[in-house]
Amino acid sequence: MLKLKRTCLLTMALALPMWLAGCANVLRVAPHAELKVYDPVWTTAYITRNHGYLIYDTLFALDENFEPRPQMVDTYTVSPDQRTWTFTLREGLKWHDGTAVTAEDCVASLERWGKRDGAGQQLFAQAESLAATDAKTFTLKLRTPNAMVLQTLAKMSGNVAFMMPKAVAQTDPYQPIKSFVGSGPYKYSKWQSVPWTKVVYLLNKDYVPRAEPLSMAAGNKFGKADRIEWIYYPSQRAASLALIDGQVDYVESPSYKEVQLFEGNKKVVVATTDPLGNIGMARFNMLQPPFDKVAVRRAAIMAMQQEAYMTAALGDAKYWRTCYSVFPCGTALSNSAGSEIMKSGSLEAARIALRDAGYDGTPVVMLDPIDSPVISAFTRVSAERLAQAGFNVQVQPMDWATLTQRRINKGPVSAGGWSMFHTWWLAGDLMDPSAIAYSGNPDTGWFGWLKDEELESQRLAFARATTQGDRKALAEKVQKRVLDDGAVAILGQFFEPVAFSTKVSGITSPIQFYWQLAPMKQ
């Protein structure tokens, strides 16, 4: 019945006449997941981050050279000792409800974001104060010098430092917000969005863009489309066929099986847009049995062979490579410290380690997002290999949106908890120890809740390091500690394709910013 209801809603929504849309320039996208969580601070889910980039704006943003540039900020100053940073907002910035953006809004937004984001946590661990000095100006005072403030505020993914109204930003950071009011280039249209069917964004004609040309996440972000629709399809095949038929303009994450549909089609482009790619990852629940034991986690990692994951999820080897570093291969901090455990992929070694760990048969409950082909393939491989190694595996199917809500549960399996889930990160989100995935603080860290005070001290030391040599040495220490803890399993580095109509311009890397896409006129 639920499937029938979703199908009917989809049919009705796609049949709506264009006059109801109220515009002639519509960009239609088949996203990689359903948007159920609207708070980009509360979750690291990329579908929510993409939503955030449409309706919110940032103080700083990275340009095409990955340099931080002012975005909502007009001017800023920094003291010679790099401990006092003062920021002044641009004129004319308004929230979607018409009220002015103030310095107090930005202070509240930064304080909330800084409690959830890994880089934000490290920045504010050094903060002496953060306060508005007038309606448009606020000052950050640090206890120790920090030359990375602008890079941190401009971080492009993970938990992005999106600005929100003060009343919204004062929400408990461990509770999701319920507001959709931002100041970004698009407004979320709740009344035109349809659950299970589509999400609608309307051009914010009152958006005040910067004068500088658009450059990746920085510059003039005034939208190219009057209306953006994220349309949900019941399967990857249905989304791919919709692109071929011209019903959508962009498909975010076609599986490698569906990519074959586009071969020889001159109206569809298949491309990989991120040269660093993505990192596959398995995450354990370290609060609950059986993965509350380090030895059991390490035994599981021993059973994981990267080639098996990459072949199952991506197929063609041109889309992936093995990588035995927690910091992505091809980046400055990639290293081999402690990586021996990831290289073996030996079921026999895993069986012996599991026996020596005293595993008692406690079920391993894996969350399987069946609407995400790559992650679901990861889950299938883990279920098979861990079962062969001697684990009692139970797979629970669900959609990705449900998984992102389920994984916050710290309780036992009997109370809706979990043992293990799989995901992937942009390589750019894991380039240094500030990544929340490598936190050792169970209160402020990522789902899985690793507790390791020594790891936290190493991550803080990295944030304070001033030379590349020191940073490299500390990154190696962090990596070895993470792997000794058995906190994550790295499943390989891959370059997921996207597919889009040849009539669409404005494709970006490594993230698709939908305000940049110019669709075909209807």
Description:
The protein is α+β, with helices and mostly antiparallel strands and 522 residues long. The protein has three domains: 130 residues, D-Maltodextrin-Binding Protein, domain 2 (3-Layer(aba) Sandwich), CATH 3.40.190; 110 residues, Dipeptide-binding Protein, Domain 1 (Dipeptide-binding Protein, domain 1, Alpha-Beta Complex); 217 residues, Dipeptide-binding Protein, domain 3. 30% of the residues lie in helices and 18% in strands. Strands 8-9-10-1-11-19-12 form a seven-stranded mixed sheet, with helices on one face. It has a six-stranded mixed sheet with strand order 14-18-13-17-15-16. α10 runs antiparallel to α13 and α16 runs antiparallel to α17. The longest helix has 18 residues. The protein is globular and about 65 Å long. The two termini are 35 Å apart.
Which CATH architecture of the largest domain would you pick? Roll
The H-level CATH homologous superfamily of the largest domain, spelled out, is Dipeptide-binding Protein, Domain 3
Report the total helices: 17
Average of pLDDT: 92
Oligomer: single chain
Question: What is the CA–CA distance across the termini?
Answer: 35 Å
Name the CATH class of the largest domain: Alpha Beta
Rg, Å, rounded: 23 Å
Q: Fraction of residues in helices? A: 25-40%
Strand content: 15-25%
The shape, in one word, is globular
Q: Characterize the biggest β-sheet.
A: 7 strands, mixed
Number of strands: 19
**CATH fold description of the largest domain:** Dipeptide-binding Protein, domain 3
Number of domains: 3
Lateral strand order in the biggest sheet = 8-9-10-1-11-19-12
| Low-pLDDT residue intervals, each spanning 5 or more residues | 1-22
Structural class: alpha+beta
